[in-house]
Amino acid sequence: MSENKGIALVTGGAGGIGAACCRELAKAGYRVGIHYRSSDLSAKKLMEELPGSFLIKADLSTEVGVDHIYEELKALGGIDVLVNNAGMTKDAPLMRAKLADFDQVVSVNMRSTWYLTKRLGRMMARKSAGRIINISSVVGSTGNAGQSVYAMTKAAINSFTKTCSLEFAHYGILVNSIAPGFIETPMTESLPEEEKLKIIERIPLGRMGKPEDIASMVRFLATEGNYCTGNTFHVNGGMYGAL
Ligand code: NAD
Q: Is the CB of residue 61 below 6 angstroms from any atom belonging to ligand 1?
């Protein structure tokens, strides 16, 4: 670990992209809060790997879970970087999709991001500084057959990012989102091999992304990017670019 840059929290920090973000931010000098919901073993292993890091266990889909994260960080004196990374998907063609799945995906991807950002944004405002990085998805811009709810929540994250950047600029808080393309993580490993090959054909760089490809953009937005706010940064091997 290099110089002490403060505290960074990564939600879903024990997962694919989340763990890479934790490693990268720890390398950049942050004391990293690894938030997780149920992966006790991998979260603990990651904490042992990263000096100064700590664990926060909470179900983000509940108000109590978010409030717990707030209290833990308050006890540590606040937060400098928030990476809203936790997310989930329940894929189905719209005509067969279930309302209960809609509610669950919205509550994790959208509602919890809104509520956690509201609570921790206030904490950052008291320090007149902070960085908030929301992990969105390329499908929030392109849509994707079978992902009506997921894509909708990710588009909402991009819009939320813009609004937060406007409300928080005054407090010195920069807010951006990163829209990954297809990344090799537990979320994509269940895709059939044939489907993966079709995806790779659409990627000019000819491969799926690695969690580290997203983590390096997270580090840039946390430690540099001093004039960047309200943007969605696409990291997808060239398969999509906003004009
Ligand atoms: P992942 O499944 O490894 O990570 C998702 C994390 O979210 C897990 O750690 C999980 O525990 C956590 N989570 C889910 N529901 C939760 C809840 N109720 N409370 C607390 N935590 C909860 O998958 P990943 O690919 O690393 O996904 C990370 C982020 O990147 C997600 O927001 C995802 O939508 C986004 N993303 C992934 C890809 C991809 O191709 N893998 C592409 C675009 C965007």
A: yes
